[in-house]
């Protein structure tokens, strides 16, 4: 018998709880971001989402929730990109 995930068994970080396995479409966004080898921008993940048929607003929302969960601030993304130019 498969064990069921309960709300209390899911790890919460930075005030954000990741989606459960029951949230299939939302979980797909998080899994894509987790598997990415680079830190994507919101425009890039929205483009991926459109290609995969994900809801545009949900993709954007889950992108920011994923960033919060991992403690990634906007300044980190911009400093990474500006560091590439130097």
Keywords:
4 helices, mainly alpha, globular, single chain, 86 residues
Summarize the structure in words:
The protein is mainly alpha-helical. The chain is built from four helices and no strands. The protein is globular.
**How many E strands?**
0
Rg measurement, Å: 14 Å
Percent range for helical residues? Answer: 55-70%
What order do the helices and strands follow? HHHH
SS field, number of helical segments: 4
- The N- and C-terminal alpha carbons lie at a distance of 55 Å
Which segments are poorly predicted (pLDDT under 50) over 5 or more consecutive residues?
1-5, 81-86
- The share of residues in extended strands comes to under 5%
By helix and strand content, what is the structural category?
Answer: mainly alpha
Largest sheet at a glance?
none
Shape descriptor: globular
- The overall pLDDT average reads 82
Q: How is this structure best summarized?
A:
The chain has helices at residues 24-35, 42-52, 56-69, 74-85. The chain has 86 residues and is mostly helical. α1 (24-35) crosses α3 (56-69).
């Amino acid at each position: 018998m498969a064990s069921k995930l309960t709300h209390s068994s899911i790890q919460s970080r930075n005030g954000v709880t990741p989606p459960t396995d029951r949230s299939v479409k939302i979980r797909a966004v998080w899994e894509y971001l987790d598997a990415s080898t680079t830190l994507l921008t919101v425009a890039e993940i929205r483009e991926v989402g459109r290609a995969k048929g994900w809801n545009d607003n949900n993709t954007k929302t889950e992108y920011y929730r994923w960033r919060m969960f991992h403690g990634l601030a906007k300044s980190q993304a911009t400093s990474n990109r500006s560091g590439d130019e130097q």
